[in-house]
Design a protein that fits this description.
It is a single chain. The protein is an alpha+beta fold and about 200 residues long. The strands form two sheets. It has a seven-stranded antiparallel β-sheet with strand order 2-1-5-6-7-4-3. Strands 8-9 form a two-stranded antiparallel ribbon. The radius of gyration is 20 Å and the shape is globular.
Length: about 200
């Protein structure tokens, strides 16, 4: 029989690998500001390298956050958070430092979540959730998630969006001149027209 450490839930190791190499590199460009998703920024316990991992994040009272253990505790980001005693979590565009990672049962977690959001976790047999407590006033390195997003946007997303941004509302294209280079650039944006304009 599987031990708690070996148990990888219904999704299993293939899905963990698919998330790590296929989905997460895309998701982490927007999950840090699109609820109910978030991004956990953690440091590898062996190399010290910093990683951003997108996942479901649910705010609790007292600025605590709750994160589902959909693959059990036996995944890299969880062991890194436990080894570090906390992590930086980005939710709705704001980052905070958290400490005291501890676990609660799925039954306890489901009582704290909107009912509409529990179905997915029930379907994949999520049995526990991690809860993190905020560190009041702790500084946050805001550059890391932003730099990752900017890099992907500039090299991958923007060139694709420029093909249709001027044709599909509410998208638009801003043409601007580089303040140092003098080069002309085009950037796809979301543009909303206010009343009276």
């Amino acid at each position: 029989p599987n031990t708690e450490r070996d148990h990888l839930m219904t999704l299993g190791k293939p899905m963990i690998l698919a998330n790590r190499y296929l989905f997460n590199p895309v998701y982490k460009n927007f999950t840090w500001f699109v609820a109910p998703f978030g991004t956990v920024v953690t440091r590898d316990r062996h190399t010290g390298k910093v990683y951003s991992v997108p996942m479901g994040v649910y705010p609790l009272d007292g600025d605590r956050v709750m994160i589902p253990m959909s693959y059990s505790r036996n995944v890299n980001w969880v062991t890194n958070v436990l080894a570090d005693g906390g992590a930086q979590v980005w939710y709705k565009g704001k980052g905070k430092q958290y400490q005291n990672p501890h676990f609660i049962s799925a039954k306890e977690a489901y009582d704290l979540m909107p009912v509409a959001l529990t179905g997915t976790y029930r379907a994949v047999d999520t049995t526990e959730f991690m809860v993190l407590d905020p560190i009041p006033g702790a500084p946050v390195d805001s550059a890391k998630p932003m730099k990752a997003v900017a890099k992907v946007n500039k090299s991958v997303v923007n060139p694709i969006q420029l093909r249709y941004a001027d044709k599909i509302k509410p998208m638009a294209v801003v043409t601007h001149v580089g303040r140092k280079s003098g080069n002309v650039y085009k950037t796809p944006v979301m543009a909303l027209v206010s009343k009276g304009s």
